[in-house]
Write a structure and sequence with these properties.
Elements: E1 10-18, H1 24-34, E2 38-50, E3 53-59, H2 62-75, E4 80-83, H3 89-100, E5 106-108, H4 126-133, E6 139-140, H5 144-151, H6 161-169, E7 175-179, E8 187-192, E9 197-202, H7 213-226, H8 231-247
Parallel strand pairs: 1-2, 1-4, 4-5, 5-6, 6-7
Antiparallel strand pairs: 2-3, 7-8, 8-9
Helix pairs in contact: 1-7, 2-3, 3-4, 5-6, 7-8
Length: 268
């Protein structure tokens, strides 16, 4: 077999670890592998987590996060960065400063709570997300709970999604994806930069095993951007990938199982 001489595009996730493997850095790296890019990681926190919830969270020191980031970016380089769980105001501000000095698209998943309702971001960090992190984002991907946390906008239907998007865009990201997966009916997301709109619709699959959907979508967008796609194309590609992963989600443990990151190659 010939030796490969060219590296695939490189994508960095800056996020927390999910010991159950369904979300966080584990989901990010699985997504990146599935989509043909080289995934790298900066751990911000370690969680004790399974299908039933989060049993513990331990933040890493700012110095450890900075050292990981500089180690990867300064030597290997990146074509895109994705952020997930950042836990505290200090980590949010540190990561935002690092991202501001990196010439690569940034996908910000402003993680606030887990699938099970466990808090993953300190309340006092919300202002840092608004004023430091969102302004450096190429694409922000809040779900409806995170929209409410960040803007106070409560989305109960599609008619509220434009208002929610405007509230997030006011903090400075170039694009926002308002994820409407918690609404009844079709799984609809709104992608907009404030001037153009893309309504992304997919059938809703009757499968409760959806742990890791937010991490997976943001990582898929970052991977697609690293592969050279523009933002609307990258988000559409990512939604297609996540929709298939949700359909193929499987049970683990006694609670909510993960989406299947390898659904495209899994033999059934």
């Amino acid at each position: 077999m010939p030796i490969r001489t060219a590296a695939p595009p490189r994508v960095l996730t800056v996020a927390g670890s999910d010991s159950g493997g369904g979300a966080g850095v584990q989901a990010d790296l699985k997504t990146m592998l599935a989509l043909g890019v080289h995934g790298m990681s900066v751990l911000t926190a370690v969680t004790a987590q399974n299908s039933r919830g989060v049993q513990g969270v331990w933040e890493l020191p700012v110095e450890a996060v900075t050292a990981q980031y500089r180690s990867v970016v300064d030597d290997i380089g990146v074509q895109a960065v994705k952020t997930g769980m950042l836990a505290s105001a200090a980590l949010v501000e540190t990561v935002a400063e690092l991202l501001a000095s990196t010439e690569a698209p940034v996908v910000v998943d402003p993680v606030g709570v887990s699938k099970h309702g466990d808090a993953l971001l300190a309340a006092e960090a919300l202002d840092s997300v608004r004023t430091k992190l969102l302004p450096v984002a190429t694409v922000a991907t809040p779900n409806l709970d995170e929209v409410a946390q960040l803007t106070g906008t409560v989305v109960t239907g599609e008619s509220d999604m434009r208002r929610a998007a405007a509230g997030i865009l006011a903090y400075g990201p170039r694009w926002v994806v308002i994820k409407g997966g918690h609404l009844p009916g079709e799984a609809v997301d709104l992608l907009t930069d404030g001037s153009q709109e893309h309504w992304l619709r997919a059938p809703r699959h009757d499968n409760r095993h959806t742990h890791g959907t937010g991490c997976t979508l943001a990582s898929a967008i970052a991977a697609s951007l690293a592969l050279g796609q523009d933002v609307p194309t990258a988000v559409r590609s990512a939604k297609e990938y996540v929709t298939g992963a949700i359909e193929a989600g499987f049970p683990l443990g006694g609670g909510i199982g993960p989406v299947d990151h390898g659904w495209r190659t899994r033999q059934r």
